[in-house]
């Protein structure tokens, strides 16, 4: 049975930022993966980064360092 | 992977497409930019693709096939090159952003817009066309088939409406080219047919174009290098160079030629039948599953092989992610760049899942998708996903 789990979801304004996120996370061995943008965050299309909520500090610090722009960081059951 | 996102791009291409791209990339110069063998090879290759598209789309003069980077660019060329401030345009709620955004931008420049509305089932109001007509109406722009539901536009009726009122008919053939019959000169419509190369024409991404009726005047958008008439300060007026400033995508167009020749050999009718049969199997097997809601008109087959659905109230992106991560099935979720139709269907906040087939998909793949959705329906809703039908193995 599918059980929604608490996730940290990072939304991006466009695909290039999402792919930079993936590249930087791989380089720095940070957790998470690309998923389709959840519609509960924003209706439409696009990619988002999903990781466990415990990774928030490490991910946001890396994003600031790498100047990755986001359209929002959410914690939600998904 | 089971790839069911062919309405976005076809992943499996016929034999010959990749080889044609490689041959152009490794052995051809720049088309129209010289008379030495490598440049002439590029010119001949692109001309051959032009002839192939002309034959497929019912255009007698290959010069009236103009190439572009994709159907969006083709539509921008068509709309910006024919409409002027003060003109009125009728379009529909089925349109993709490739039509909508150029129209919205033109509306900021004085072009007036109206849309034939779709109801909650996605059906267009057939009486709206006449109702929306004004004395300044200049053109109709519409899709050949919805990229969200696969429903086909009744282009015979739309063309008759345009003929009655002397309107230009511009068709977005993104989902139709290679599957649905097109015969510009045989039928006398549409005036401009915009196509993409990388979907059911099986070419590479980065290819597309316009097929243009004799006598239709499209003002150039890009101007620049043409390989001819270099001391003319204006873009040459003859098609196709009128709409083709700059170096063309020679390798991509060589691949498009190979893909389109495959379509001609197989015939669009047969390719549609093959892919539509798989979509029909999928729809008929899953229709009894109470948790699934389908969008579109499934009363006529064959139809463009697209099936849009939602699983109960679940976020379409979540279901797409589960299909990918658990079953390795690739489908599209979200809004499909079709905002007006999602608004009509009431699916803005949920989006929708879109499954789309090509003639290279198989029955076995389709059965796997059926089983995966049944399982997911049962898993997510806690209910059984419908009775397996006879023949379901």
Tags for this entry?
heterodimer; A: 78 residues; alpha+beta; 2 helices; 31% helix; B: 393 residues; alpha/beta; 12 helices; 14% strand; disordered C terminus
Set down the secondary structure blueprint.
The complex is a heterodimer of chains A (78) and B (393).
Chain A: E1 6-11, H1 15-27, E2 33-36, E3 47-51, H2 56-66, E4 72-77
Chain B: E1 2-3, H1 17-27, H2 37-57, E2 65-68, H3 71-82, E3 88-92, H4 97-107, E4 112-116, H5 128-132, E5 137-143, H6 155-165, E6 168-172, H7 184-187, E7 192-196, E8 208-212, H8 250-266, H9 268-286, E9 292-295, E10 306-311, H10 316-327, E11 329-330, H11 339-345, E12 353-356, H12 363-381
Parallel strand pairs in B: 1-11, 3-4, 3-5, 5-6, 6-7
Antiparallel strand pairs in B: 2-8, 7-8, 9-10, 10-12
Give an overview of the whole structure.
The complex is a heterodimer of chains A (78) and B (393). Chain A is globular, with a radius of gyration of 12 Å. Chain A is an alpha+beta fold and 78 residues long. Chain A has helices spanning 15-27, 56-66; strands spanning 6-11, 33-36, 47-51, 72-77. Chain A has one domain: UreE, C-terminal domain (Alpha-Beta Plaits, 2-Layer Sandwich), CATH 3.30.70. A four-stranded antiparallel beta sheet of chain A has the order 2-3-1-4, with helices on one face. Chain B has 393 residues and is α/β, with parallel strands linked by helices. Chain B is 38% helix and 14% strand. Chain B has helices at 17-27, 37-57, 71-82, 97-107, 128-132, 155-165, 184-187, 250-266, 268-286, 316-327, 339-345, 363-381; strands at residues 2-3, 65-68, 88-92, 112-116, 137-143, 168-172, 192-196, 208-212, 292-295, 306-311, 329-330, 353-356. Chain B has a seven-stranded mixed beta sheet with strand order 2-8-7-6-5-3-4, sandwiched between helices. The longest helix of chain B is centred in the N-terminal third of the chain and has 21 residues, at 37-57. Chain B is globular, with a radius of gyration of 22 Å. Chain B starts with a strand and ends in a 12-residue tail after the last helix. The relative contact order of chain B is 0.17. The model of chain B is unreliable at 385-393 (pLDDT under 50). Chain A binds chain B through residues 1-2, 35-40, 43-46, 78, and chain B through 315-318, 320-322, 333-337, 342, 348-351, 376, 379-380, 382.
